[in-house]
């Protein structure tokens, strides 16, 4: 079995059971919802105790459980074809140079890490239609890089 097939199996079980991602994340717990859903969709790995919980929840085999703990091949085709993922891609392509300039000015030569990274999402009521609010945070510069924060 390949990782993509395992993700399809998990999605089939989710549909069959009528589960929401909220239910699944509450059952597995231990880390962010984005990491759990990302792992079940084949883009992340779950640590062994969480892979065990996921395997029990979905009735997975021992080999499938171990696969959830392996580092997957990550990413999708470029440019992405999913409309939401494409909008993020578009935001980065259009705003990325400005974000880079502002982050470098504030933090020095470096990057915002996507490894030690936190993501929060919430619904904001709006008379024009509810909005999605994202808050993303990650370290602003790798260890040893120049930090330009005022002292």
Annotation keywords:
two-stranded antiparallel ribbon; disordered C terminus; mainly alpha; 2 domains; 151 residues; 49% helix; single chain; Cyanate Lyase, Chain: A, domain 2
Number of strands: 2
> What does the radius of gyration come to?
19 Å
Order of helices and strands: HHHHHHEE
Assembly type? single chain
Distance between the amino and carboxyl termini? 54 Å
Characterization of this structure:
With 151 residues, this protein is mainly alpha-helical. It folds into two domains: 3-68, 434 Repressor (Amino-terminal Domain) (Orthogonal Bundle), CATH 1.10.260.40; 83-137, Cyanate Lyase, Chain: A, domain 2 (2-Layer Sandwich), CATH 3.30.1160.10. It contains six helices and two strands, in the order H-H-H-H-H-H-E-E. A two-stranded antiparallel ribbon has the order 1-2. Helix 4 packs across helix 5 (62-68). The longest helix has 25 residues, at 83-107. Residues 143-151 have low confidence and may be disordered.
What does the secondary structure layout of this molecule look like, with pairings?
Layout: H1 3-17, H2 21-28, H3 33-40, H4 48-58, H5 62-68, H6 83-107, E1 118-124, E2 131-137
Antiparallel strand pairs: 1-2
Helix pairs in contact: 4-5
Summarize the structure.
The protein has 151 residues and is mostly helical. It is 49% helix and 9% strand.
């Amino acid at each position: 079995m390949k990782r993509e097939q395992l993700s399809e199996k998990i999605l089939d079980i989710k549909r069959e059971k009528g589960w929401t991602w909220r239910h699944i994340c509450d059952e597995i717990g231990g880390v962010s919802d984005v990491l759990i859903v990302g792992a079940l969709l084949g883009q992340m790995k779950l640590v062994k105790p969480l892979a065990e919980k996921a395997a029990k929840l979905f009735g997975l085999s021992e080999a499938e459980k171990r696969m959830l703990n392996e580092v997957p091949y990550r990413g999708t085709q470029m440019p992405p074809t999913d409309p939401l993922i494409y909008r993020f891609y578009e935001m980065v392509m259009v705003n990325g140079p400005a974000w880079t300039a502002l982050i470098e000015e504030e933090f020095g030569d470096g990057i915002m890490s996507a490894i030690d990274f936190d993501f929060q999402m919430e619904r904001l009521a709006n008379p024009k239609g509810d909005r999605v609010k994202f808050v993303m945070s990650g370290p602003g510069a790798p260890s040893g890089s120049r930090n330009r924060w005022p002292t």
